[in-house]
Amino acid sequence: MSDPKPSRKDRPPPKRPQDPDGTRRDILDTALREFAMNGLSGARIDEIAARTKSSKRMIYYYFGDKEGLYLEALENAYRTVREGEAKLETEGLPPPEALRRLVEFTFDHHHEHEDFIRMVMIENIHHGQYLERSDVIRGLNVTAIDNIASIYRRGVNSGDFRPGLDPLELHWQVSALCFFNVSNRATFSSIFGRDMGAPNEQAKLRESTVEMVLRFVSR
């Protein structure tokens, strides 16, 4: 029987890299791809260490254990999408245009970050148990609801949007359309014999997704 792994506080720090922040980011980016491809149980710290030219010891020093690395990779994936939303600068736009820009961004982000979609799917397999431990993710996603609620409220006040909708449900609906576009693309394409990931198909789906949301909220 192997000796138990020493706790994080008991382990001596590894030799400090010249760019510790860059090394940490590289580990998180690589871990995201590894977890997205193989899940929490199938991911291997050895693989992540080899691909980042770091060491298992360094990874454990930064993140504690594999579950700690998984949670931080998940947090980082959510942080990326929320930081992108924050750069949209929708406050000065008419509400329909602001909502259009938000839906377009969500569609494009999910299309371009398939690892994020896979990570969310994996976390749902785990019934959200790791996400529940994260105050970071809860804080990040409050801003998402605040943003869409602000756009919707302005649209109701301007007469563009119908009243009585729940911003959280609206966020759910936007997410559902954009999420399905990635999560079920392979099976949908195979079943119906049409490549839904082709550029022309994606362009049509992007525009119809925006139109569906705008028609749903419009008066």
TrEMBL record:
Give the InterPro entries listed for this entry.
Homeodomain-like_sf (IPR009057), HTH-type_TetR-like_transc_reg (IPR050109), HTH_TetR (IPR001647), NicS_C (IPR041474), Tet_transcr_reg_TetR-rel_C_sf (IPR036271)
Which keywords belong to this entry?
Answer: DNA-binding
The highest taxon in the source lineage is: Bacteria
DNA-binding segment(s): 44-63
Q: Which Pfam families did the record assign?
A: TetR_C_29 (PF17938), TetR_N (PF00440)
Determine if DNA damage is one of this entry's keywords: no
Residues annotated as region Disordered? 1-24
The answer to whether keyword Lyase applies is: no
Domain HTH tetR-type, chain residue ranges per copy:
21-81
Write down the PROSITE patterns for this protein, in alphabetical order.
Answer: HTH_TETR_2
User: What PANTHER family does its record include?
Assistant: HTH-TYPE TRANSCRIPTIONAL REPRESSOR SCO4008, TRANSCRIPTIONAL REPRESSOR
Recorded protein name is: TetR/AcrR family transcriptional regulator
